[in-house]
UniProtKB/TrEMBL annotation:
Record field: transmembrane: 28-52, 58-77, 98-130, 150-171, 178-197, 217-237, 249-271, 305-328, 349-371, 377-404, 416-435, 455-475
Main localization category: membrane
Bilayer topology term: Multi-pass membrane protein
Record keywords, A-Z: Cell membrane, Membrane, Transmembrane, Transmembrane helix
Organism: Streptomyces pseudovenezuelae
Domain of life of the source: Bacteria
Protein name: APC family permease
Parts forming coiled coils: none
Keyword Kinase: no
Family matches, as InterPro entries: AA/rel_permease1, APC_superfamily
Keyword Magnesium among record annotations: no
Compartments where found: Cell membrane
Length: 504
């Protein structure tokens, strides 16, 4: 067993308390809401069609395999060391503090960017409702659902309200998310089921053939985008210090992951049964509302739009929760400032940190207005997040293989599950990310704020990684964090975590 750092190396202030009140259902709700199947389907099916044509089902199946391998790595690491910092703590202990800090950093920044651009999606849906009601302008401002500026302004108002709900108690937030999930999945299954029955385009085996994709670059970009579809299941592990037993977090994440695979395959085939490739590409991030209008008359045609709204709301709130808790874990190691460990005495949540996360997401959302077209902004954000997700999933999987390397002496099965599967899964994602980054660097000869510009697409994740290395240097040389001496995160088991007596 690896040695733990002495308790004296931790900050001398009293350990902050999180409240244990969650179970498997809460973990499923957080993971499923954070994965945001309806949002991914709504903005992703048209987007992925522009990259790989009609081979989305093939890529979703292929992407699921390494993601499943990484999920098993998360579950094994969680059994060994439950910590709300998860990848940040696990990679730091197994691979070293610099890659560990970078894992935590890119996870958090990706989540904040997600909150920022999903705020614009929420605003876009609200404006689409306004247009349906006959309201097209207010005070001379056009209520255009495709405008980044107007949609962002409306979305930030909703983001503020969701932050207030996340602050006042994680259990009430997860129950709210679960109610939204039931509605949105009912609508999604109903419309996709109807599309499967009435669609004019015959199901083709070529949809499941990845070899029909036009180029290696398109394949890599499509795979990273497909991995992004699944991103979010690991949010269940961010509340493993607030679950009644640590295994509940792993069960919740894995249940959500398999449910997402079924939904994504079902929806991708349904969309392609009902819409041609040209229709998918033309509608882009508006493909789900377009499907509703094509299949039903009002008011039923509006239901997919409502489901998209609910999905965006649930996913933003589900992202706020793990982001604040990841910063909580980093702060108690003094790799981040003390504001992130301020736990509200009444609600038992990292309230101050949650509010700061919302404020940073709002600033990023305002900066994204520089890309005037909403679909272009979404594509740029999704690609940037896809690359950094591949990075931190890959590092965490390799950390699992390194930590449990002694399993090679425990028989072929245990060696395969503890070392082989995580290592191969991690290397696949790191390889895809590296290849796609190289493709971006070589596809353009100038810089332009456009998702068609390779230098711009590479600069976003590169800036996030460089900023992370800079913040790591601050933590090591300015904050003198013990994390950079030992590579160990705070031992979560040494904290006093009171049971929530009001939980049922």
């Amino acid at each position: 067993m690896s040695s733990r750092p002495p308790l004296s190396s931790a900050p001398s202030a009293p350990s902050p308390d999180l409240r244990r009140s969650l179970g498997v259902v809460d973990g499923v709700a957080i993971a499923a809401s954070s994965t945001a199947a309806t949002t991914s389907i709504a903005i992703g099916m048209g987007t992925i069609a522009t990259i790989v044509g009609l081979q989305a089902p093939a890529l979703l199946l292929l992407a699921f395999l390494p993601v499943l391998g990484i999920a098993t790595a998360y579950a094994r690491l969680n059994r060994s060391e439950p910590n709300c910092g998860n990848g940040y703590v696990w990679v730091g202990r197994s691979l070293g503090p610099w890659p560990g800090f970078l894992t935590g950093w890119v996870t958090l920044v990706g989540s904040v960017i997600f909150c920022a651009y999903t705020s614009a999606i929420m605003g876009s849906v609200v404006l689409a409702f306004a247009n349906k009601a006959g309201l097209h302008s207010v005070a001379g401002i056009a209520l255009d659902p495709t405008s980044t500026g107007v949609t962002t302004g409306v979305g930030l108002v909703i983001l503020t309200a969701l932050t207030a709900l996340a602050v006042t108690g994680v259990r009430s937030a997860t129950r709210f998310q679960f109610a939204l999930l039931v509605f949105e999945y009912t609508v999604l299954l109903a419309f996709c089921g109807w599309a499967l029955i009435t669609g004019d385009h015959a199901v083709s085996l070529s949809w499941f053939n990845p070899f029909e994709i036009s180029s290696g670059t398109a394949f890599a970009q499509g795979m990273v985008l497909a991995v992004f579809f699944f991103w979010g299941w690991d949010a269940a592990f961010s509340v493993n210090e607030e679950t009644k037993t640590p295994g509940d977090a792993a069960r919740g994440g894995l249940i959500a992951l398999f449910a997402m695979l079924g939904l994504f395959l079902f929806a991708s085939v349904a969309f392609q049964r009902e819409m041609s490739l040209a229709e998918l590409v033309r509608n882009g991030p508006q493909a789900l509302p377009y499907l509703g209008e094509k299949l039903a008359a009002e008011p039923w045609a509006t239901l997919p739009l409502v489901a998209l709204m609910f999905s965006a709301v649930a996913s933003v709130q589900a992202t706020l929760i793990p982001t604040a808790r990841g910063l909580f874990a980093m702060s108690r190691d003094r790799t981040m400032g003390p504001v992130w460990t301020r736990v509200h005495p009444r609600w038992g949540t990292p309230a101050a940190g949650t509010v700061v996360v919302m404020a940073v997401a709002a600033v990023i959302a305002v900066l994204a207005v520089a890309i005037p077209k909403l679909s272009d902004m979404l594509l740029a954000a999704v690609n940037a997040i896809g690359l950094i997700v591949a990075l931190y999933y890959g590092l965490t999987a390799l950390a699992c293989a390194v930590r449990f390397r002694s399993a090679r002496h425990e028989g072929p099965r245990e060696a395969l599950l503890a070392i082989g599967v995580p290592a191969v899964s991690g290397l696949i994602l790191l390889g895809l990310g590296g290849y796609l980054g190289y493709s971006y660097l070589t596809m353009s000869d100038h810089f332009e704020l456009s998702p068609d510009n390779g230098w711009f697409m590479f600069s976003l994740p590169a800036a996030i990684v460089l900023a992370g290395l800079g913040m790591a240097a601050v933590a090591k040389y300015v904050r003198h964090s013990p994390y950079f001496t030992t590579g160990h995160g705070t031992d979560a088991e040494s904290l006093t975590l009171p049971m929530d007596r009001t939980a049922v």
